[in-house]
Amino acid sequence: MTQVDTVVLGAGAAGMFAAIEAGRRGRRVLVIDHAKAAGEKIRISGGGRCNFTNLDIRGERFLSRNPRFALSALKRFTQWDFIARVDAVGIPWHEKTLGQLFCDGSAKEIIAMLLRDMAQAGVQLWLETELGAVTQDKQGFRVETSRGVVVAARVIVATGGKSIPKMGATGYGYRIAESFGLPLVETRPGLVPLTLAEQVLEPMKPLAGTSVQGRASLGRIGFDEAILFTHRGLSGPAILQISSYWREGESLSLDLARGAEAGRVLREMRQSTGRIALRTALARLVPEKLARHLEEISGLNGNLADQGNAALDHLAGLVHGLPITPVGSEGYRTAEVTLGGVDTDALDARTMEAKAVPGLHFIGEVVDVTGWLGGYNFQWAWSSGWAAGQIQ
Questions:
Q1: Cα distance between residue 79 and residue 77, in whole Å
Q2: Which sign does the torsion angle of CA 10, 130, 30, 119 carry?
Q3: 392: pLDDT confidence band, cut at 50, 70 and 90?
Q4: What is the pTM of this model?
């Protein structure tokens, strides 16, 4: 039997950060993970360069049944605090777009920083160790593992969600919550490509690989980033972002030429070069394959000069508001995050501790807090891990 003050389940971003903070406060800390290496999701993130935070962290950019829950941790350990740690060890970084910060070199530099900080804080790390039941008795919490029983005064659950199962993701953290009677918010894939019905996809197959800088909208929510047509449906940053808000049966609106004023442009071309085909005119606004598709679905015939104002308005409407109804998503296999999780009503926002089970904490993706694409989920991992690690 191994006895420690704090056992952290999961050696990802949130778990390692919580362990560092607890270790620095004199706690005997053990981190356990079934993977062969720590921080595997960090390693593959951001194309291998780790989009480790965002300059513009705001509470409204996190989805949760209680949208204010994340504010406490995010304000107490901010993006600037994490940037300071990165700067302190000399990891060079750059802003890509929209406040997204990436390592100039490799995501492995962030992992190395965390592992070094853990070692300096005296944190033990068990890898390739299977986790079993977590129970509580008079001695504290008992964690069954493939290396034997671990007894601890505190357990920090940082096992992530269900996204990217090929990297070992499971619903283990949710099962722990349920075993202690904590409520869960329905989980589903987030930041994920969306799929289309075969009858919708068939005429769009020539568009596979076509990308535009556009806007994907769902009601009042919209994202201005790249939209990519794939052989299964839709992807690209704008689609990944809107996927976290989309539900089955809802229709998206795609602006395929954001800011282009298609109606005005088409009218001007009708005056100057009216004898051109509709697809040729549309190709001044969108990629050629997409122009052909829009012409086909418009139901219009003839050259540009043959079209009245109503017809041109119809074409412009397709360019700036193409309606499309996905039938699903590509699921956890490609999802970057898991929406839902441990209900925040059951947790203390300052400590991430279960209100009904003192000493049991949940942090990171396993909690019902999900950020936008672009470093927000890493910042939630750092902030929630920091909060849990402050407990003496």
A1: 7
A2: negative
A3: low
A4: 0.96
What is the three-state SS of the chain? Answer: CEEEEEEEECCCHHHHHHHHHHHHCCCCEEEECCCCCCCHHHHHHHHHCCEEEECCCCHHHEECCCCCCCHHHHHHCCHHHHHHHHHHCCCCEEECCCCEEEECCCCHHHHHHHHHHHHHCCCEEECCCCEEEEEEECCEEEEEECCEEEEEEEEEECCCCCCCHHHCCCCHHHHHHHHCCCCEEEEEEECCCEECCHHHHHHHHHHCCCEEEEEEEECCEEEEEEEEECCCEEECHHHHHHHCCCCCCCCEEEECCCCCCHHHHHHHHHHHHCCCEHHHHHCCCCCHHHHHHHHHHHCCCCEHHHCCHHHHHHHHHHHHHEEECCCEECCCCCCCEEEEEECHHHECCCCCEECCCCCEEECHHHECCEECCCCHHHHHHHHHHHHHHCCC
Helix-helix angle 376-389:79-88, to 10 degrees: 90
The count of residues in the chain is 392
Other Cβ atoms within 10 Å of 350 Cβ, number: 13
Crossing angle for the helix pair 108-120 and 13-24, nearest 10 degrees? 30
Report the pLDDT value the prediction gives residue 297, as an integer from 0 to 100: 96
Paired sense of beta strands 124-126 and 29-32, if any: parallel
Chain Cα centroid distance, residue 239: 12
Report the relative pairing of strands 252-255 and 322-324 from DSSP bridges: antiparallel
Q: Which of 364, 373, 335, 328 is nearest to 16 (CA)?
A: 364
The residue-averaged pLDDT of 275-279 equals 95
Instruction: Read off the pLDDT band of 115 (50, 70, 90).
Output: very high
Indicate the residue type of 119: A
Chain centroid to Cα 172, Å, comes to 19
Dihedral (CA of 299, 300, 302, 303) sign: negative
Model pLDDT for residues 282-294, shown as the tens digit of each residue: 999 999 999 999 9
Task: Report the C-alpha gap between 91 and 244 in whole angstroms.
Answer: 31
CB 239 within 8 A of CB 228: yes
Terminal-to-terminal C-alpha distance of the chain? 23
Measured CA to CA, the distance from residue 332 to residue 115 in angstroms comes to: 28
